[in-house]
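Our consortium's second objective concerns turning raw sequence data into structural hypotheses that experimental partners can test. To show how far this objective has progressed, the report includes one record in full. It was chosen at random from the queue rather than selected for favorable results. The single chain below, 536 residues long, was entered without modification.
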Amino acid sequence: MTGFIRNPSLSRRSLTKAAGGAAAAGIMARRGMPAQAQATPEAGTSTVSADTVQGAIAQLEPMITDALAKTGVPGLAVGIVFQDELIYAKGFGVRSVDAADAVDPETVFQLASVSKSLASTAVSTVVTSGEITWDDQVVTHLSDFEMSDPWVTREVTLRDCFSHRTGMYGTAGDDLESIGFGRDEIIQRMRYLDLTGKFRQTYSYSNFGLTLGGEAAAEAVGLTWEDLCDQRLYGPLGMTSSSSRYADFAAQSNRAELHVQVDGVWTQMLERHPDAQSPAGGASSNIVDMATWVRMVLGNGSIDGTELIAPEVLLDTHTPQIVSNIDPATGRANFYGLGWVVTYDATGRIYFSHAGAFSVGARTLIHLLPDEQLGVVVLSNAFPTGVPEAIAYSFYDLVHDGAVSRDWLDHWDTMFDAYTNAYPAIIAAYATPPADAAPALPLAAYAGTYANDYFGPLQITVAGDALTMAIGPGPKTYALDHWDRDVFVFDAIPEAPGVKSTVSFLIDDTSNGSALTVQAFEGYGQGTFTRVPDVG
């Protein structure tokens, strides 16, 4: 492990404690949170000191090394900011299991959904300048945008997009991205999706819903999203290793690769190119840059005496916009602001946070306690793992109580186990075709072009004694293995070899395929394709 530790300054700079207390008080007053949450300590009365934080760090570091030993997670980096200082920044493990290069505080990681909080900050700079407001309607800036409901099309705002309350289902657009479509095309095809929730009443976490809001903000100022982040956020803050372009991440010599578990072994095997959803998941950064951003956020929009974001604009992003869920263990509500998760604990402490994950091998977390001017950033190069949460939750326990309240690693790893626990059953179910499987029709009967509005054309081709399916702009090609009569299967999840999905053909009275349904695309009724005449 590499990095540094140094004692934080005991002098408080402007807009530190007062800013944190004001932010918490503003949230209470403006959104009517439960009485229990209103017990936030008055600004300036915190009992957390430099010695307390350093004592917690001393106990935390052995826990980090122990967590890596238990889980085998290849590498991670941890940063802790306290009262406007980066007081702890360390790398642990390696950037890749295929090399011996150590993680250090300047190792660049893909941030996954922590990008949403950065995106909120980037848009806040444009709100601060007066060029847009959070309540601008999307169609004001993207005039050709449509949703399936004309009224929602007219009314949906950047605020709705950044708080996941557009009424779109959460994974809308993710399937188009998975087969190679870009941002503009995915946003254009949102018009073909039925709304599964109530506009402004239903919370549904959506990568492309938030991306829509970011794209509208960028269009309003005549910039690409990536240039907006460069010019309005990364550049002014001196975040020289940060970017919202995959190509910039790939060009970094000191970068962390992605890892997934294959037969219980952490393996580097996949890449994630998230440019299509860059506002929601496409940023990359390191601990040093992230700490600068955290200092500005905890500084109420200012850093080193310079205001980047107006305090009232930043407060708006941390103000609950919608209830995201009710914790069944405590009965307390959790909220989503604008690109930020807003929660509170049993004592009324307010936390701003966001987690991120790529199923192909990344896990990240930012967790801020504004009243204490304290923040933790954890970046790791593996999925699934609960190590980032275990580190953050253990640290806050140590800071506040001097001891860890529970085995947070076991708690969070158990939660993530649910992600992969279903895989063995699916793999086993499709390991061997049914013994009484009916033979397929002559393969030419299935061949042809099928299409729907959302996905566009899908091509079924005979390749020797098998079928292939091609879809998307690339196109992306899948080998189809016969299963039973008119049902074929294919590998659906790259990070989970053996997890299959089905392609089921509907046969017409001429004994040819007239339609097909791809099970992997069918979650919200978009998986059926009708046969169309072949072009050319």
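The partners drew two points from this record. The longest helix spans residues 50-71. Confidence is low (pLDDT under 50) at residues 1-45. Both points have been shared with the crystallography group to help prioritize constructs.
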